[in-house]
Every structure is written in structure tokens, then in C-alpha cells.
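Notes from hallway chat w/ T.B., transcribed later so I don't forget. T.B. wanted the structure written out for a chain they're using in a teaching module, and asked if we could keep both sequence and C-alpha cells in one place. Agreed to drop them here.
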Amino acid sequence: MALVRWAPEREIDRLRREIGRMFEDFFSPGRFPTLFGRLREEEFPAYPAIDVYDDKDNIVVKAEVPGLKREDIEIQIKGRDLLIKGEKKKEEEVKDENYYYAERVYGAFSRTVRLPVDVKSDEVKAKFRNGILEIVLPKVEEAKPKEIKVEVE
């Protein structure tokens, strides 16, 4: 039998890899779907869900905020950042032990949306109807697309 020199750094590195592999296996998706699976980002998308689109002269943001009142929502614009914040309050107080399911989310939220162009913050308009918040943000003149006719000679 040959003598092998002991290298503690190799043993420590091997142990670190084994522990890392053990944690990856333990927390893998599907292993404990009701406990650890809920921590995955795809199951908790950003709230509120939004659509952002360009309609030539404006940037339009539509946000789903069901169950809120107009006074529960605040909108701020700082440069190219649009901040939507608010609070969804629980309607009634029911003791936790009486629940069969509790999937609705309550509490304060805030969502910052980076706008693709500069907007005229003093001309922003917002409408709220049927749980949909629509924010119309007029573009500054430099950001509007310009059409240039090309003449062929």
C-alpha cells in the first residue's frame, strides 16, 4: 500500500461541494411544493401586474389592482421611474382557525416601473375603473417618433 500525503484543503473543498449538492437537492422545485416551492419567484410575480405600451404620443400603463378604492392608490413620477403604491385592506376580521383557504393577499404594496422614454410628468392622467388603473403618460417632444419623407431622385 502506497502512502498518500494528506491535504486538508482538498478534504475541505470536497466537503463544501457535498454540502452544496445536498442543499441544492433538498431545496429543489417539487420536493416540498407547499413549503419551499412557494419561495420561487415565478409563483409570486410582481404586484400589481402591469401592461406597458406605446401609443405614438403616450406611454400607457395599465395595472390590475382589484379590491382597491381610488383613495388607496398613490402614483408618483421621478424622472423615468413610475411608482405605483397602495394598500389592500382586509374587509373583515376572521380568526385564523376558522379558515379553510386563505389565498388572497392583503397589505401595502409598491411597484416601480422604469419608463422607456421621458414623459411630461405635469400632464399625466390616471383613470380607475373595474379594478384596472390606467395611467397615460404623454411623451416629451424629443421622445416622439418623427417621420421624415425621403425623396427619390
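Follow-up for T.B.: Residues 32-44 have pLDDT under 50 and may be disordered. Might be a good example for the class.
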